[in-house]
Structures are given as C-alpha cells and as structure tokens.
Amino acid sequence: MASLKSLIISYITLLSLFHFEFSNADVKGGYWSPDNGLDASDIDSTLFTHLFCAFANLNLDTYQLTIPSSECETFPQTIRQKNSAVMAILSIGGGDAKSSDFNNMASQPSSRKAFIDSSISLAKDNGYDGLDLDWEQQTNIDEMNNMATLLNEWRAAIKAQAPNLILTAALRFTPNISEGVSFPADAISANLDWVNVMAYDFYAPGWVQPPYVTEPHAALFDPTGNDVSGSSGIAAWIKAGVPANKLVLGVPFYGHAWQLVDPNNNGILAPATNFNDTLVKDGTPSYTEIKDFISQNDATVEYDSSYVTNYCYSGTTWVAFDDTQAIATKVAYAKSNALNGYFAWQINQDLDWALSKQASQTWGS
C-alpha cells in the first residue's frame, strides 16, 4: 500500500513539473479566426509555438461555451500537420463580447461552474492544449473581483480535471483602469500561465478626443511622457505583481489610418481629423493592405525609433503600423526584458508571413 501511495505521489509530482515546464516555454503566439480569409490549413505553423483560435462564444442562457465553426473543432489537428509541436489554445470572448455578459457569468457560483466545466470539456474533446480568456472593456471593481473568483475556481477545476491544460488571458496593456480600479494581479499571477498583454489600440481617430493629431496606436515607448505605450504597460503589470516571465507582449499586424489636415505636415503628432474611414472602413487596414497602399501610391515610409513605430503617408492619408523593423525591435525588447514571449493579432493580416518570420527569427529558438 505504501509503495502504491508513493507511486501516485510521484506521478502527481511529475504531472505538476511537466505542467510547469510546459506552460513556461517561450511563446511565439498568434491569433487566428475562421472568418478572416485564411484557412487554418494555410497557416505556416512552423513560425509559432502557440496558436489561438478565436473565439468560443458564451451562451447567455446556459453560460456554457460553443465553438463557432467546424474549422475551430479541427484547428488543433490542422495546425499540427506542419508543426507537430505547436500548441493550440481556444480563445473565449473577444472585443465584440460584452463585459457585462462575462461579469454576469462570473458573479454566480452556478454560472461560473457551467462556464468552467464547458470550457474544459471543449478543450479536451477537441484536442486543445489550453484556454484563453479574452474578457475586455472592464470598467469597475465588481468586474475585477468577479474575474478574480473566476480565475481561482477555473485553475482549481483544471488541476482536478485536466492538469496539463494551459490557462491564459488577453488583457489590457496596463493593469490600471481608473482611480481605484485595476485588474486582480494576485489572482492573475497565481492562476494564469501567462498574460497576453494587448499593447496596441492606444489611439485611433474614432475614439480619441480633440485636438486630433496623428499618433501611433502601438508604440513601444512614449517620448511625450504620457505613459501610454507597450513598455509602460509592461512596467505597470510588473509593478502590480505579475512577474515578467508571465507577460507576453502583443504586436499588431494592422495599422490605424488618419486623415491629415495638411499633407505637407505629415509627421507624428501632425494635425488630423477624426474621419474614421480613411483608407479602409473603420480606418484599420491590415499589414497587407498597408503594403498595397504604399506600393500603389508611392507612399513615403518612415521609422521612428523614439516611439518604435512605422508610419507612411501619401496625400492626406497617414497610417501608423508596425513593419519588420518595429516588430524586430519590440520582440528584442520582450526577450531582453525576460518576458515570456510575444503574440500577434492577427496572423491573417500578415503579408507572405513577413512579420511572423521577422518576429520568430528575432526571438530565436
């Protein structure tokens, strides 16, 4: 009996060690969704260690999760055809999901359990290696407290039902929302394998206040001193208590387009309008669309090392984006600051895998 007990303890210990090594591996991540024009079978998964399928949907009646398409059901098997070692993670929610819906789910024990159990079942039944919570747009302390409870119970359920399952979350670039409202750093650090820090969408014509000026939406640094940047967000997360090796830096494979007031005044912080459909609808062109715009309009391309951003302009159209130089600098920053890696939103927006290749090569093996 003592021998059997020793074997069981050793097995549990081995599983725990495996999970630790498994979840703390370097992250070369990217998000994909079935409606973005890129088939899962066409993903060059050799460039990634972790690929996120976006998004599982929350049923507001049962608080259980559903997978949006058959491609998501077969996503893990499909991406492993080119890279048997790549990890598949099912992401839940997204920017279009209401924070109030997730808060309602997380506020009651029964709905939390329905959500948690269904998430683990979906992951196990479809061959996923992990789950990713993309709960966005939080504004109040009630949401933060309920998130902490959810994460505590979710991790406990994973330990009991599927101990090797990765658990992550995509969260705001900084843990600070407003005065007295911040993300539950202790619960995040204790229960998540890592945080995907969404270091983008700081500025855009559709949601900034006047006076309107061209601003990079995903700058690594902020020379203006406003502390709105990827590096300031990372520093804030670490100060809040989430260690660097549990932070993964987000990079965008898209830009934000602005309309210049004067085409001859075309640098960063140049006067602009709040016209939101510049270049493409909603002013958020993909990297592919930006490169086409540059080629078709002989646009001028600049790189600003003080922000770590690229931008281009032609006529009154001005676009902030990350080209290979900005991507390389950001990934090098993540590695030199002992972060756990990087991820891209989203990989279908790349052009011939140029940004993905640059990121992977910069990080190294």
From TrEMBL:
Domain GH18 per the UniProt entry, residue ranges:
26-365
- Biological process (GO) annotations? carbohydrate metabolic process; chitin catabolic process
Keyword RNA-binding appears in the UniProt entry: no
Q: What keywords would UniProt list here? A: Glycoprotein, Glycosidase, Hydrolase, Signal
Q: Which SMART domains match?
A: Glyco_18
**CDD domains named in the record:** GH18_plant_chitinase_class_V (cd02879)
> Has the keyword tRNA-binding been applied to this entry?
no
**A GO MF term:** chitin binding
InterPro entries this protein is in?
A: Chitinase_II/V-like_cat (IPR011583), Chitinase_insertion_sf (IPR029070), GH (IPR017853), Glyco_hydro18_cat (IPR001223), Glyco_hydro_18_chit_AS (IPR001579), Glycosyl_Hydrlase_18 (IPR050314)
GO terms under cellular component: extracellular region
Q: Which domain of life is it from?
A: Eukaryota
User: Which range is the signal sequence, renumbered to this chain?
Assistant: 1-25
Q: Do you know which SUPFAM superfamilies this protein is assigned to?
A: (Trans)glycosidases, Chitinase insertion domain
Family recorded in the similarity comment: Belongs to the glycosyl hydrolase 18 family. Chitinase class V subfamily.
Q: What is this protein called?
A: GH18 domain-containing protein
Upper lineage is:
Eukaryota, Viridiplantae, Streptophyta, Embryophyta, Tracheophyta
